[in-house]
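Reagents: none. Just compute today. LUD domain-containing protein.
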Amino acid sequence: MSARENILNAIAMNQPEFIEIPVIDSSVVIQYDDVYAQFRTVLESIGGKTELIGDISVLKEQLILDKQSGSFVINAVAELGNVDEQAAFLTASELEKVEKAYVKGTLGVAENGAVWVYESQMINRLVPFICQHLVLVIEKENLVDTLHQAYQKLDVSKEGFGAFIAGPSKTADIEQSLVIGAHGARSAVIYVLE
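Predicted 3D structure written out:
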């Protein structure tokens, strides 16, 4: 028997005992009296902003003004009008000039201020990360207390890619000073539709 086979056999014989994954009772995990208030508090503490709106027409007007300004703006929210489908075919070097992107989120998580976005909602998986300013839109009824509840509602196998996005990009790795926008959007505003 070769040394390789000896090592592999030793590994095979020394496997840890199988332990069932614990079942988490979601009724005893964190629950907030006001899910939106908690979502807002956490999101603002990590550098993001949120606004509760009653009508999406507010964003339609903002999108029109953004596009009229001459900036490269991508809209991926069908309710706001013309979705920029051509963004699906743009390369990273073409997308690097995106000033603002409007993207629809699936749900928000109050405990960490994150919003889940499927790849199909991004149009191009680079869009929410390469833009300078990110605008996410979610519905208030799709705010949940915890990630446990989020994963119960999400079908993560639905598409090839998806991400939780929590506020603007930030890092403090470089000499321990906080840098906003180092690896993604410099600002993130989440509009929550009542």
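The chain has one domain: 30-193.
Action item: order primers for follow-up constructs.
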